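A quick word before the example. In earlier lectures we treated sequence and structure as two separate objects. From today on, think of them as two lines of the same record. Here is Divalent cation transporter written that way.
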Amino acid sequence: MENTFLNKTTLIQYSDKNYEKSKFSSLSQINLSDNSTDTKWINTYGFDFHDEFKTIILDNNLDDFLIKLLMEEEHDTKVILLDDLLFVSINVLKTDEKKLDQEKMIFIVSPNFLWSIQEKPGDYFGWIRQRLEDNKGIVRKKKTDYLLYLIIEAIIDNYEETYLKHEELSDAILEATNIRPTPDFTNLVENRKQELFTFKKAAISLKNTIVKLEKVKIKGVNTKYFSEIKEQTINLIADIDFELQELESKINLIFSIQGHRLNEVMKTLTILSVIFIPLTFLAGIYGMNFENIPELKSQNGYYILLGVMVVISVLAVWYFKRKKWF
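And the structure line, produced from the sequence above:
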């Protein structure tokens, strides 16, 4: 198990003038409590390495409450201040698949190191690693607080990019001219709504995390960077809410179209019923088997009755047209 942990763990150590990316050959090499001026970013894929986590925490004299936090099977969104450490747990959307899924990410932050633990391999942080390697921007001049800011910003940027991409597809399929009161179209609208609810839940969770990070006070960790990305999450949530309102309007329009069509059908059936009810009444009277029905003995009774029926039908149609019922 230790070898698996070491294979899934990488170290990026950097400063203004130095950069080194490496792997560990043993747990004893993982030294988080040295007095080096370099910043360390350790990244691990997987949460099943309980013994390894415990060994690293104890060997580096970290707050042993971390052991309990890392042993928890369910990691809700948390920001916990420990002894010279910050424990951050986030549920993050995996957007590289057709179906949106969630994964857990944990960040253990001190002034000199950031340990990120991810549930699944792969992430959105490749551009951060590339900046560190190429020494672009100010990232190598900053400490772990700025690195955590960039990581959370990368998550938000990925949300926005994925949301905009899905929004374009949604607009093309669900635009007003394509609205049809069919089960297939309704399913498309409902699927998009569920997708937006998933986006909104993830964005709200991230916003709450950022709000908590803004209030944290820990020596050597500056939280001033998080105000900007909080605004990004608020804007994303506002965009999602606006599209949800649009989808709700489209669903209401679908129901209105269905109601209108049903009304048209009922109106047609009602008109036909009103026309044929008196005709059926007359036919019923003269279809009775009584002997003393004078009109039956009339030589032109049949034609007179047909004429009366025609007049009644014409008068009914004329009345409906005058009322503009059809």
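Notice the following. The radius of gyration is 36 Å. We will return to this example when we discuss secondary structure assignment.
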